[in-house]
Amino acid sequence: MLDSSRSISNGVKQLEAVIFDADGTILDTRELARQSIEHVLTSHGYAMPSILELRKYGGRPAHETYGRFAPKHDSNELVTKHRAFQAERFDLFEAYEGLHDLLRALKAGGLKIGMCTNRATNVLDLLDHVGIKDEFDAIMHADLMQNVKPHPEGILKLCENLGVEPSRSVMVGDTEADVGAGKAAGCAFTIAVTHGIGTRELLESEGADYVVDHLNDILPLVTNKT
Question: Which of 33, 92, 114, 143 is a plausible cystine mate for 19, CB 3.0–4.6 Å?
């Protein structure tokens, strides 16, 4: 876990909301993403990129991924096929261990729960599938933003919907885009998790205030309890 110059005991007393990313943060969609991209690209004559190449586009909208790896085709058409594949393969993803307990504990602690994701509106179906959609007080997905993360627009709109100041929220994510958006929006601090696509080294280099390996590590940081 990273040390921080912030005082936890002074900061968390003022927290009112915890904001989560979706893919790679609370939902393990790595295999869902890999198979859907492979399905779309290979069916249109493209080779499947390496995992390292795909990591560079981690957390970015699907349009950008297909714009890069399938430049001869209409990205809108490919994204439609991508989403259709995912809608039929909910067996390929699951909630990360500890998620349900974490959400319940945050609610019990009086904190509001929000989501800011670069995934489109289909994130609602994924959340519903694992039984947590109603746990969120507000959700901001890519179809509701002009500028996706790392731009702060989504977090700022989300905080407005939640009725909290960004400085009284914390952003939790697994990519540099999540960390960057949280910092740009003026969140109290950012927490990065390593079980998604972002490596510890990358997340540390992007300036995440805390880097944790499991969802269970988040609660003490936002409630000042051990």
Answer: 114
Beta-ladder partners of 19: 114, 171
Structural domains present in the chain: 8-28+94-223 (3.40.50.1000), 30-92 (1.10.150.240)
pLDDT in tens, 86-119: 999 999 999 999 999 999 999 999 999 999 999 9
Look-up: residue for tokens 């880097």?
211
Of 24-33, 50-59, 167-176, 189-198, the range with the lowest mean pLDDT is 50-59
pTM value surpassing 0.85: yes
Q: pLDDT tens across 114-139, in order?
A: 999 999 999 999 999 999 999 999 99
Q: How far apart are CA 220 and CA 223, in angstroms?
A: 5
The string of DSSP codes covering the chain is ----SS-HHHHGGG--EEEE-SBTTTEE-HHHHHHHHHHHHHHTTPPPPPHHHHHTTTTS-HHHHHHHH-TTS-HHHHHHHHHHHHHT-GGG-EEPTTHHHHHHHHHHTT-EEEEE-SS-TTHHHHHHHTT-GGG-SEEE-GGG-SS-TTSSHHHHHHHHHHT--GGGEEEEESSHHHHHHHHHHT-SEEEEESSSSS-HHHHHHTT-SEEESSGGGHHHHHHS--
**Closest Cα to residue 24, out of 12, 36, 33, 16?**
33
